[in-house]
């Protein structure tokens, strides 16, 4: 199946890899792809940059440990995702709990490869479906394929994590925000976004509000949602008859102690078509927020406004250092505005859509499409 798909996808840069995978199944081929990508510096798992020759993408990544112990944030950028020159995968993961850093890293390692396998499988199934007509509505079908692939992937990743012999995720977990940027017909790019996130009320994904439907689902599963007296406005999820674990999220990988009481790992998946007005995207987490930012569309954490975030990134003298600059500005703002509160881990990925320098003077915050 993989070899047939590989030929149809015209994978030009991996002829040797493909020849070596003549007798491999899809999973083995994907593992070989990941190994080859790492060898060619197409995968970044730490602070740094990804800027492949000939690519229009430039990804800047930076993570700063907070004041609560080990850094439980982790990131990944995979250029030429699945050996496709027009695709890039970015993901940011925010662990929590005593094993949170292990959980976040485990999900980071397993999600991209699992997604790639499921994407190939879904494409193959769609290609033999008599009711499937890619030409009739390419945008719609392409998104549905990614959405179906992501749903299968998140379910598989969460199940695999539960069975992991070396990681105890019963009282630990991680949130996730990932994107796949893919070039469609006429070289128009689109981004598929997936979120397994902290509890939210609106498009802003945060830990201070709870989406009404999320709270209803948890209550229907006998879980409880309420705020502590010393944390007004910070809604948390609790067991039916025990004041634990107090999670400030409604969806996450892991946290199996409350998986039977409303917490789920089913992602929200949406799509946006990139236009010439979209200059960059930010994936960020400080433990309180995970955001998607198309040129400054929503607040970057509570300590930085929309305009400040856009200005910080757009005025960076070196795009490669834009993520570091954003994170360090957020850290300084935290210490200034939240005196006495231990700073959380802060991480960011800034993905620029255009290789050449562009003017950002006219950029205004734009709210992304509702889920």
TrEMBL record:
Domain PPM-type phosphatase: 58-353
SUPFAM superfamilies: PP2C-like
Alphabetized InterPro entries for the sequence: PP2C (IPR015655), PPM-type-like_dom_sf (IPR036457), PPM-type_phosphatase-like_dom (IPR001932)
Pfam families for the chain: PP2C
Record's protein name: PPM-type phosphatase domain-containing protein
């Amino acid at each position: 199946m993989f070899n047939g798909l590989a030929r149809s996808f015209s994978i030009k840069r991996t002829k040797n890899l493909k020849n070596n995978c003549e007798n491999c199944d899809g999973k083995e081929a994907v593992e070989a792809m990941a190994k080859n990508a790492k060898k060619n510096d197409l995968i970044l798992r730490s602070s740094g940059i990804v800027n492949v020759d000939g690519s229009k993408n430039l990804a800047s990544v930076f993570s700063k440990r907070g004041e609560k112990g080990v850094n439980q944030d982790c990131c990944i950028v995979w250029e030429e995702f699945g050996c496709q020159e027009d695709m890039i995968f970015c993901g940011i993961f925010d662990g929590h709990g005593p094993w949170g850093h292990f959980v976040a890293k485990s999900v980071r390692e397993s999600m991209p490869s699992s997604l790639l396998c499921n994407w190939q499988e879904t494409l193959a199934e769609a290609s033999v479906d008599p009711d499937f007509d890619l030409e009739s509505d390419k945008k719609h079908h392409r998104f549905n394929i990614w959405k179906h692939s992501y749903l299968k992937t998140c379910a598989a990743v969460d199940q695999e994590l539960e069975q992991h012999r070396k990681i105890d995720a019963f009282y630990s977990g991680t949130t996730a925000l990932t994107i796949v940027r893919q070039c469609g017909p006429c070289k128009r790019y689109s981004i598929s976004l997936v979120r397994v996130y902290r509890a939210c009320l609106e498009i802003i994904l945060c830990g201070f509000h709870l989406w009404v439907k999320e709270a209803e689902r948890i209550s229907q599963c006998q879980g409880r949602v309420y705020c502590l007296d010393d944390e007004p406005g910070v809604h948390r999820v609790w067991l039916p008859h025990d004041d634990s674990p107090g999670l400030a999220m409604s969806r996450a990988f892991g946290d199996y102690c409350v998986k039977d009481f409303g917490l789920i790992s089913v992602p929200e998946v949406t799509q946006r078509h990139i236009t010439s007005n979209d200059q960059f995207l930010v994936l960020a987490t400080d433990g309180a927020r995970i955001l998607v930012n198309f040129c400054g569309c929503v607040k970057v954490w509570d300590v930085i406004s929309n305009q400040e975030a856009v200005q910080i990134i757009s005025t960076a003298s070196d795009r490669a250092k834009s993520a570091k600059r954003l994170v360090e500005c957020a850290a300084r703002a935290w210490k200034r505005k939240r005196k006495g509160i231990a700073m959380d881990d802060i991480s960011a990925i800034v993905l620029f859509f255009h290789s050449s320098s562009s003017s950002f003077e006219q950029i205004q915050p734009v709210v992304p499409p509702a889920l």
